Amino acid sequence: MRVTVSYKRLLLIVTVALVFGASVVLSVLSLVAPAAAPPGIVAAPALHARLARRLLFVIVDGLRYDVASDPARMPHFAAAMRAHTSGESWAGRVSMTTSGVLALGTGQRGRLEQVIRNLSAKPPPYNSWFANARRVGVKVAVAGDPAWSEMYGKDLAAVRLDPEGVAGDADFNAQTFAGARALIAGPYDAVIAHFVTPDHQGHSHGIRSKRYTKHIHGFDADLAQLLRELDASWTIVVTSDHGAADTGTHGADVPVQRRSPVYAYGPGISSTLRQHESIDQLDLSATLPVLLGVSPPAHGTGAVLATWLDLPAAAAADVACDNAGRVLSYASRVVEPSLAQRARDALASCAKGNAAQVREQAAVNAVRIADEGVTRATGLTSPATWRWLVWISVLAFSVVLAVFGRACDLRVLVAGVLVLVVTVFLVRNVERLPGSYPNLTRGALLTLGNAALLALALWPRRVLDYFRRFWPYTPALLPGVRVVGYPADIAPEAYITLLIVSLVLLASSSVSLGAAGFWRGFWTRVPWSGFVVWLGALLVLLPVLYSPNGTYSHLLHHEGARRAVASVVIGLGLYSLRSSLGVWLKQLGPLLLVALAPVWLRSVVGPWLGRSAWFCLAALFVFELGHRRNCARALWFGMCSCLWLSRDFESVPLVAILVLSWLIGGLVASTHEAEVPLAAELLLVASGFCLLFALRIGLQDGLEIGGLNFGAGVFHDPRVGARWVGLALVYEYALAAILVLLALSHALSVKRALALGKCLLATFLIRAFALTCTFSLAGSSYWTALRIISDLPATLCIAFGALLFLAWRTHEARRAPAPARTSFV
Quick one: which of 627, 620, 782 has its CA closest to 253? Predict the structure, then answer.
């Protein structure tokens, strides 16, 4: 049987895969990027003369409505809500701090562009009432959360920001209170005090914990004391930016994470209104400017809370209707014509002859319709989402056909679509379950999935024969479920899969026929050296299981300790590969020095030396692989090339994964090809995926995009731009993927190596498609979107590495027989 792939077929695969990857990148960027404000929209005149002499706007970060209204937890806050004008404030669907800050300042909803901006807030592309206040000499100052300064800094008269780099559960309320008091004593017309610590306490300990209850009770007393110190000239508005789940998390389109308290009193605020119906957080962005007598945000889509204002009913209705007309003049440039007409029809009831209450309600209705239209026209709710999704689906199907050709079975595709639909459903809904049910559900699914994996590993023929009665391709769902899973769930899955598969392979020549055979094989077959290497590699990768962010950097704080640990792991890796490197013992020293050089010199050498070492080692990798065909030494030089682009702690998982890959590859190859069961091949593909996913976590220091090495390839060069860093990161991820595939297939026959390369290429392209579907259809959660966007670049880079590996293997299969097998221990 011929095992080669034609160059025409390979070119087709490369072309379709690259077009697919480019389409995924462009679609995500176009959907996440904030919509540009229409040109020609300028701030309208102030809606009314100034009502408040001085305004204090308090934001208690992450304060839930049920906590704030509970007299046992927050007696002063609950009493204020009963005594003053109050209600429920609903944050947007992406219930994050920067989304709230954006909404409160510009009247624009925080959408999924906040996935990036929440990590590093930037000035929004919309007009804000802060800018309008500065133009007319109204001075606004901010104490607390730095997001206000980062987004509106040029329009603020003064800032007193919270400390940076403190622990997540640190209490710095005292500093924020001191900053607020200093600004209140200053010559400012409005002071914003944003208290972040309550949110951090909720994240660290949970909303129902005793620690949080004690903290929020004390904060309530401190806030009440601050408000008592103010004289009657102050107008007070107190609210939150979002709510929180019982675990303290937020960001999703869940009522408990969106619902917050709000109350107001003082000059300009009605003293007759008490409990008010629910309001939209955007409404405060239109109401606060009215209190200060400044223009509302030109691009805002919030309604003025007319009934909250201390104005005659007719005057309040005029303010509400004038604001609705302003919103409609902006929205008509953005929304669909049908929705714009609906909003104009609703606004018709604002005519002067109607009752004040009718006019106020008409203004609210028109604003809500306009806001709905603006939301539909941008981001994941826009028609462009579906166009991109259809195009990417067509490309994904083409990729599968190009890679597998006639071997592609329609039933497998149908099953894959069903698995994807179930996965998207779970990703969207599990996070939205109340209380602790999200974690309980994930734990149950994790247990069931790994029970199935263990059954397939220990009883392959029995399990396969049973499931084949119903559908011959059922076992393919096992690695398939992992491929389309949610990143936070795949992290522990990757570790447990590696543990189970490699343990079974250690104990048997292929896959054991049962638990009894597994234990007999383990005690009689496993060499101590191989067991120690296996155990050490898994211990090094243990952080992948339990730490979603800061996986290795949090464990290795001290720079010297990081380098020492990296040096020890590199040395042990070299010792493990010594029998395969084809060198004398005395030649191991230079190889060790080559690997240790980047660890100890990377932070001190200049760009010429650093990049020269990076490129020279890449050339040695290609030379060893293409001319000498020594996989072990090529692996070593490729790894050293990666180390010049890595951070110290990245060296630890990189070396451990390559050693574990070499071990698994040698064990898998120990079975005669004719005796390889389907279960072994499925487990090999699942292992390859999990090794590469664990590698992605190690190189990215966790699940989130903020852990990327944004200094890759810089080497202290001040002129380096983002494109160079991006190129270095693509090289690092792609080469690391090639190295893992090389280690897995070093002892396999050409046919099995090509099959592994094709399967893993398709695996990561299918994963990119699955992530895109989840992002498009379940995008109302900050955390879901953040982790998908964090996973997509690495997924595409790894797929690119698998593509290069497949091209190399194809070329080698045409020009020479498979390389000789080598032993690991």
Answer: 782
